[in-house]
Amino acid sequence: KQAEKAVHQKKEQSKTKCRKARRRHINLVAEFNRRQRKNIWLETHIWHAKRFHMVKKWGYCLGDSPTEKSYRACYRAMTKHCLLQDLSYYCCLELTGRENELLKQLARICSIDTGLTFKESCCLSGRFEGSLNLYRADRYPEDVLGPVTFIWKPKDGSENRQLWIWMHPALKQSILKELKAIFQCSEPEEIYIPEPITTSIQEEKQVDVVLSLGKKRKKEDKEGEKAVPVKKIIGDGTRDPFQSYSWISQTTGIVISDRTMEILRYRLIGPLSHSVLTETLKAASLQTV
């Protein structure tokens, strides 16, 4: 009995490597990519994860509430300094085509009775961002889709224009379906084909090497410490990375592209927001060829 008791009390062999090995860059990237398979991380995720309670919503992992009592500090920043919010989880749809064709079809899903529309002169020039409510085609004031914000790319002398529409991820699928219907965009223009390095099988091998026990700690890559990390998963919480993300209309030539997680979005609140931007962003010098 004493011998059996000693066998049960014997410590089990550790299933994980030492912290130094686990914190290697290539191991961290493989582990982070594995944890993003169901819920995508924003680029500021690690910063938020250390300071916020995280929640999983709309296919993303977002910071919900701070772990410390920072409400007074946030209020002070909004009223006297500058507060930055990461809104990159908002979805962005890009419309490209002739301006008159875009305005003709977009007029069917909004109404001048609610305020500004896509053809407002101040917004059409690209100097200001507009906001409005979208409805199903020719169904105003019924069948509301939800609120969106939009901004036009300034004119460059050509007939084609670019329009970016931002919306909440919960509204993306219904709005995208309506836009594809009014512009008759059904054929995919681009389909993402993942590279071999991004396959889940290789990621699992990386994780298996990290979690292997009872063996000498070596990487499968011959380059060892110089091994190239696994690439980050492409896609977002509202889009399957293996499906098409751009559609074109053969009749109107309009192209609808899903730019979610490709264009980051930040919100600055406070009286010093403009001064922070001017000190952070520097104008590039124009180079003529």
Automatic annotation (TrEMBL):
Residues 4-97 form the Pop1 N-terminal domain. It comes from Cochlearius cochlearius. Transmembrane segments: none annotated. This is POP1 protein. One of its GO terms (biological process) is tRNA 5'-leader removal. GO terms for cellular component: nucleolar ribonuclease P complex; ribonuclease MRP complex.
